[in-house]
Specification:
heterodimer; A: mainly alpha; Four Helix Bundle (Hemerythrin (Met), subunit A); B: about 325 residues; mainly alpha; globular
């Protein structure tokens, strides 16, 4: 899978660089389309292309583990969640004229400013650091794991506390909504309430309860 | 030159497997379901027990008109079957069927993550189909697909992580190299959770709420006709092959067997996967469809705690024997 790591691969180092640039252009284009397209669901799907392109870039930089995690978390979970939210609320086919914001110039300014800051910091910090694409993979699972749990274990643990706090917060919010709102927005762990209020995962089945009939689909589709 | 030939040959073999195995599973399903329901199933096509029925079905699908609804989002509607099908082809590349380099399409360093990540992408195809069809039943099917995926991805990942902890590696080949027979009772809870969650992710009965034909026609695939519909069906059966192969590799020891693992390891892999595929069909015939709230409850209140307990058990045993 690591194209760049093989010493006699069919792509020369310059080949990897060219591929890196091309994929980068595709990623950038998809990212721009994500924020400029007038169709809500298309924006989410362009986001898939952009995030997938990033994963390919990680792969080209021999960071294989990070690449697959990128696909698993962002494409497999985050975008599915976004699409789920869109389909649950409003996902018209065609253009959404009200999907535009009046703050576009302010947003553009902030985006460009943060991009410049990030690029500058990264370039300044890693200008003299080189990845040896021909040597052993620098981003394999073993290497990533060792550095994560030896050098960076404190930030890792701090992050897990943050995630735990977010989880507890989500549970608190959903339970509160149930006790005040008379059966509204039941949490995902207690779906017996069976209400079909929009906003909970199990609410996608308005006709839940009508479906125990028979052992599933009929044979084939003829 | 030799490298290129080697790569081409491997890709070709994986591609043939990808085309042939889902058909075999499909034909087995026809016959097994038929016999479990006290009938014969397809008997005429091809002569011997209707072996060519699926080929005939394929020809029939190819002849049908390819209809795109007038209000649909054309490009996404047409792209969706490919997005649903291709991930399973990629996953097949990474599943080792026997010991050694020669029996796996491509050794992937982070194999467990690779297969789970790419399998998750396949669901995007169903979501795209459900949304772009401009059909309320399709949209409902898409919604249910997404809810189901979000619920069952977690236990699948956690149980796979348990095996990775036991083996000390996330490479599928590495996991098989480290396998011992006593992992079977040690990881049995994880194996069941993984298999059930995988079934749910494939939307196989009893987890076929997203395509429940008696209430939402055929879910996200309602508007599809002809070859594109056939591609979705192929994706489902390729998914069965991939799930059974993965469960075999992760939990049942893949090419390990009581004897003959060196020369005939691949036979063990295929045998175990075939038994699992039979179980998939058996479950479909046996159990009624789970309701949406039952689906969510099963995942969040049973499978996730079970998989967490399995991880704890794995950790404790690992520390004790270390």
């Amino acid at each position: 899978m690591i194209l760049a790591a093989g010493s006699h691969g069919f792509l020369s180092p310059t080949g990897v660089e060219i591929a890196f640039l091309l994929v980068g252009l595709v990623t950038l284009g998809a990212a721009v389309l994500t924020v400029t397209t007038r169709q809500l669901v298309h924006a989410a799907l362009w986001l898939v292309v952009a995030l997938g392109g990033l994963a390919v870039e990680y792969l080209l930089l021999t960071a294989e583990f990070i690449a697959w995690v990128q696909v698993l978390i962002y494409v497999g979970a985050v975008v599915v969640l976004i699409l789920f939210g869109l389909m649950l609320t409003r996902a018209p086919i065609g253009r959404s004229p009200d999907a535009d914001s009046g703050n576009r110039w302010a947003a553009l300014t902030v985006a460009v400013a943060s991009a410049v800051a990030l690029v500058w910091v990264v370039v300044d910090a890693f200008r003299t650091t080189w990845i040896d694409l021909d040597g052993p993979a620098a981003g394999s699972t073993a290497v990533t794991g060792a550095s994560l749990f030896q050098n960076w274990v404190l930030p890792f643990e701090a992050l897990s506390v943050l995630l735990l706090a977010a989880l507890v917060g989500a549970i608190v919010l959903s339970r509160k909504a149930r006790s005040t709102g008379a059966g509204e927005a039941s949490p995902a762990v207690a779906p017996q309430a069976g209400t079909s209020q929009a906003g909970t995962p199990q609410a996608g089945a308005p006709q839940a309860g009508t479906s125990q009939a028979g052992p599933s689909r009929t044979d084939g589709v003829r | 030159m030799n490298d290129a030939l080697d790569v081409t040959l491997r890709l070709l073999v994986v591609f043939v497997v990808f085309l042939a195995f889902p058909l075999i599973v499909g034909q087995t399903e026809h016959k097994v379901m038929a016999h479990m329901q006290g009938r014969l199933g397809p008997m005429y096509a091809g002569g011997f027990h209707g072996w060519a029925q699926l080929v005939a079905d394929g020809v029939k699908f190819a002849q049908k008109e390819d209809v795109v609804p007038a209000d649909a989002d054309r490009r996404i509607f047409q792209l969706a079957p490919a997005v649903a099908l291709l991930p399973y082809l990629l996953v097949l590349l990474a599943i080792p069927v026997g010991p050694g380099e020669g029996t796996v399409g491509q050794v992937v360093d982070a194999g467990v993550f690779f297969v789970l990540a790419v399998m998750g992408v396949g669901v995007l195809g169903s979501l795209m189909a459900g949304w772009s069809s401009a059909n309320k039943f399709s949209l409902l099917g898409g919604l249910r697909t997404a809810a189901q995926l979000l619920a069952y991805e977690l236990p699948m990942l956690l149980t796979a992580a348990s095996v990775a902890m036991a083996a000390g590696t996330v490479s599928l080949v590495g996991i098989l190299d480290a396998f011992e027979w006593w992992w079977l009772p040690w990881q049995i809870v994880g194996a069941i959770v993984f298999f059930v969650a995988g079934l749910a992710e494939l939307q196989r009965p009893p987890f076929d709420m997203p395509v429940a034909d008696s209430e939402i026609i055929f879910g996200a695939y309602t508007e599809y006709t002809g070859l594109r519909f056939a591609l979705f069906l192929l994706a489902e059966y390729a998914g069965i092959v991939v799930l059974c192969g993965l469960t075999t590799v992760l939990f049942l020891g893949g090419w390990h067997g009581p004897w003959g693992a060196d020369g005939l390891g691949w036979v063990w892999t295929l045998l175990k996967a075939a038994v699992l595929a039979f179980v998939v069909i058996w479950l479909r015939v046996t159990y009624p469809r789970l309701r949406e709230d039952q689906l969510q409850k099963l995942s969040w209140t049973l499978l996730v705690p079970l998989s967490l307990a399995q991880i704890a058990l794995t950790g404790v045993v690992k520390v004790v024997i270390a």
